[in-house]
Batch of 2 targets.
Target 1
Amino acid sequence: MIDIGGAKLKNPFMSASGCFGYGQEFAKIMELNSLGAIVVKGVSLEPWPGNKGVRVAETPAGMLNAIGLENPGIDYFLTHYLPWLNEKKIPVVVNIVGRSVDEYALVAQRLNETGVTALELNISCPNVKEGGIAFGTSKEKAFEVVSAVRKETSLPLWVKLSPNVTDIVEMALAVEEAGADALTLINTLTGMVIDIETGKPLLGNLTGGLSGPAIKPIAVRMIYQVAQKVKVPIVGVGGITSLDDALEFFMAGASAVQVGSALFRDPLLLSRLPGELESYLAKKQTNLGAIIGLARRNS
Amino acid sequence: MKDFLLQVTSQQELVPGVFSLTLKGFTQEYEPGQFVQVEVAENYEPFLRRPISICDVEDNNLQLVYRLKGRGTKLLAKKKPGDKVRVLGPIGYGFPLKSQRATLIGGGIGVPPLLGLAKKMHGQGMEVTALLGFKNKEEAILLSEFAKYADLQVATLDGSSGRRGLVTELITNKDDLVYACGPEGLFRTLETLGVKGYYSLEKRMACGVGVCLGCNITVIKDEKELRQRVCHDGPVFPIGSVKWGD
Ligand SMILES: Cc1cc2nc3c(=O)[nH]c(=O)nc-3n(C[C@H](O)[C@H](O)[C@H](O)COP(=O)(O)OP(=O)(O)OC[C@H]3O[C@@H](n4cnc5c(N)ncnc54)[C@H](O)[C@@H]3O)c2cc1C
Ligand SMILES: Cc1cc2nc3c(=O)[nH]c(=O)nc-3n(C[C@H](O)[C@H](O)[C@H](O)COP(=O)(O)O)c2cc1C
Ligand code: FES
């Protein structure tokens, strides 16, 4: 068992929020029980309609998304998706989004005693004009929202950081101090694609979040920097497409990893990774604990 | 739905820029109108799979007909017999069969998925009319195949084949259930004409399986607005149900 800030997972591989829905679609092609946990799409207090226009664009070694956190709201999640997930006995991590401190806190409150395994606060989504951005890029705002949610919940509280900042360590320390039990690094980086035929930005929202292999070195670097400074465990995410990629994250200091947009291309990737890690550890005659943070100890 | 590694058995350029690719080993049942997500390169560049409609399946041979557009379709066109291609599918909901007579209306590269549909309808003893529209004679595809299963009529914009004009001008019987695939303009014309039936939509996709919400649209069902995913809840929707502009 792996312990991520009080959440017990049978292996260190999870889906990344927004890339696995609420599990029902992937259940048709894989055994969801092969995952350490499912991290569901960001849930808000009320339903959010998301952005208009083109929402996804392919980019070199990755993609931009400007979904705008479309989701049916916490009530619908609790009545339509969670019972099904609970029945499957898979650890569920609920990604929470909000436009105000109160909204975050209210969603967290609604998740008490529902059987979910952990909360993951998305303070970093770069897409929503009104929300996200301010929390994830200001250490005072981040501290405030994490403290408020901390008061509402005794569940393991993970905070997902935005990479769109100058000093990631400063943000990590602020949310750790506010009571985070673990940190998830990283969310998407803000980018833009211009359609040269129309001469306009391609995405309806103009900008979108960059994910995929293109952001992997940035994620690895940020995890490496933060892991030296915080005591809480780190969940790594950003561009993982293979076990080799995941190993880089572990060696940088992540205790577990999430896989996101690589699933759009290789939907069965997450079902293979746990077995591949076991084979790797057996072959190298080592264990996961010995690998986590190895690159820091070696440098 | 399954992730298949299929072997190319043929790759043929039907008309300049439009290819027909046949892949062996597609062992799943499918409904005409469903599509597959095709991996065009083994490494992660380009990153996403490409959605392509199923044109036909015969003896587990999957036929895809696609037009060269950008990087992905150009790479797909380079595949040779013996090469392996990863294909996820079949995806989505196809065209529901509900009557004894039907009119299929295809425009341009929207024509291919209607071939499997014509074949299925013909197999069930339905009376099928196929109205196919193209820019010109040089772009007209699959005509002899459609002629096997349907009463075929063609329109071209320049009159170089069949009647000159829009494919919708070929409609004579507005009471038939219509099954359409093509550009948005065609669908809007069908709505204006007030015909009943189904159209198959195209929208940019990332996952293609319903998890990313990249392809969401608003659909009106029982007078209520619903958010639906073109990949997972479509790509086929009742004519008149889509709220355009999302
Ligand atoms: C459900 C569905 C069925 C389709 N069936 C067919 C078919 O049978 N035959 C055919 O020729 N084409 C079909 N298309 C369109 C086909 O997916 C695009 O032409 C193709 O993805 C273009 O890829 P590219 O790399 O060549 O072009 P690029 O323009 O370089 O592609 C860049 C990105 O935009 C996306 N994209 C570009 N154009 C479209 C489009 N029209 N629709 C959706 N995504 C697009 C690509 O998938 C890729 O992610 C279908 C699309 C959908 C959604
Ligand atoms: C389509 C899409 C939707 C996403 N939605 C969310 C979300 O709701 N909440 C969140 O915290 N992150 C969201 N993300 C970010 C991912 O969880 C992940 O942090 C990011 O994509 C980097 O990982 P990857 O390169 O493996 O995709 C989304 C990403 C994508 C591509
Ligand atoms: S393309 Fe991802 S939900 Fe349709």
Target 2
Amino acid sequence: MTAAAPLLRVRDLTLEFVTRGGTVRALDAVGLAVAEGETVGVVGESGSGKSVMALAVMGLLDRAGRITAGGVEYRGRRIEALPERELRRLRGPEIAMVFQNPRTALNPIRPVGRQLVDVIRAHRALGRRAAEAEAVAMLRAVRITDPEARMGAYPFELSGGMCQRVMIALALACAPRLVIADEPTTGLDVTTQAVIMDLVAGLAAERAMAALFITHDLALAAEHCHRIVVMHAGQVVETATPGRLFAAPAHPYTRQLARSTPGEATTVATLETVPGNLPDLTDPCLPACRYAARCPLVAPRCLTERPPRTEPWPGHAVFCWNPA
Amino acid sequence: MGRVSLRFVLGRVLAALPVLAGVVVLTFVLMRLLPADPAAFYATGPAMGPAEVEALRRQLGLDRTVAEQLLIYLRDLGTGNLGRSMVTGQPVTEDLALRLPASVELTIAGFLLALLVALPLGILAATRPDSAIDHLTRVIATTGVSMPTFVTGLVLIFVFYFLLGWAPDPTSRYDLFLPQSPRLTGFLTLDTLVDGNWEQFGAVAARLVLPAATMALFAIAPLARMTRASMLAALQGDFVRTARALGLSPAKVLLTYALRNALIPVVTMMGMVLSYMLGANVLVEKVFAWPGIGSYALDALVASDYAPVQGFVLVVAAIFVVLNLVVDLVYAAVDPRVGLG
Ligand SMILES: Nc1ncnc2c1ncn2[C@@H]1O[C@H](COP(=O)(O)OP(=O)(O)O)[C@@H](O)[C@H]1O
Ligand SMILES: [Mg+2]
């Protein structure tokens, strides 16, 4: 993973939102890398900045968002320096995103087939007929039965799981090298969750796509990813393979997470067992390690000095003054 | 597309009948409560004494009780007879049919003009919140609603006819010195176009501009505001973010994804604005000497001429009903989630 230049590299990304209620320091020196064909999981409680990071990678931050340090590199190009035209060419054929809540993520008044055709024709010089055939093929690829008939369906006529399949078809329609899936199964029932995850993972493997899989469910990430990045309150606290993360979690936060994740699939409840709450990100005097207030091993310098990066094992990194 | 059944349309029309009946009765009674005596009003000849006035009153049926008069009116109404205007001496149905196209043409022109300005303004304001164009939209909207239409009309006439001399004189719908086209629809723009009468068409269009602008000015405000608000909401919608995340062109994102969704609530507003414009017609027609049903009804009202006023109110109420139905149908056509069955 470290040998060749990675497909995506997020380097020291520091980002804030200027809002009426104060400046939200959403990301603090976030770093991660995704190699070609690799599946990386990003795990953290709700509010830890996972979606913001994904949107920054897509160049889709809203006006209030400002990158104050670091940046995103995709195949050696700095995303935040690219003009909108260039970004548009990346979105779809290079990087694509599957959003949480498929019902609202699809255009409610456009047949799903038309939405697929829109994406296909935005990036490829295909006629209407050819694009439609391609769209049907995509619906079939995401295992939608009777795809021809489904082309004319509106999102409100489909179930949540079916909408998410359409969303996946949209994201994969232009054969991206990297697909970002932001909590693709949240809000779906448990059986559908598993089916959708297997579908995304299967398609990613089959098409040799890299994937950045965002979830608050450590067990789910462990099951499907080569490597996991643990985030807390806008900071990366640890990154390792799922095996290492469960066998030898080094950060106190990860230890809490792993302890409360008993092997098989557990859901939202898992992360809520970590005591305490995320700090208020608008607080101008956040501690250097944002886990400090919840940490059983907190030391004075956790508040003032940025925790150093240490490698307890090759490919296993932790940011902590008192790693295990 | 939502499915629209004939049953739905018929049901809506039937449901509107009691409303129309109520409107008829209410107008009828209100007119008779006015402190005026049409018989005395029209019995103005020097030879007219109390006996003659009484005779005229009997002839007009005004000696009967209001209830009796109402029954007679309703019976006539059933045969499509709206009575006779005492001012023009013509059946009210004929008078209205003659004048209705002028009013409808003016209202539609004003409405289209308003849309032409309000939609782009609202969209621009939404894509650039707090920019100069956003503030301009707010100023136009506030000015538009805070000025009574007849004042706007008079100001426009003063500036563009009297001061600048750009507009033709506001006394007629067409140029009296050019050949007229035969009446097909009563919409002079259409009739002159069909006839290939370009010069007269130009004259007709030029005469339509100021009154239409007057009507448009107050319609722009609600339409632009609604477009802005609903466009802002759509642009922040998840599906717009999806469209951008998939690399669709900015035009596609803005028009096909955001705007179409944003227009759904605007359609409802359009119906309300159009209905309101029909009412506002009355004063604008008067100011521009526009020979429509509004000025006809106003003249009749001043002359205590009952039948035309009642006919006018009935026609406007019927148009209201039809408009509301059309809005619902358009709504179902643009929003697949709405089914009409
Ligand atoms: N557009 C925005 N404006 C202001 N604050 C935002 C915006 N988007 C996200 N945030 C803030 O950034 C933080 C991280 O949010 P998010 O990335 O959505 O978390 P996650 O996806 O991990 O649940 C939260 O505190 C959230 O309130
Ligand atoms: Mg999120």
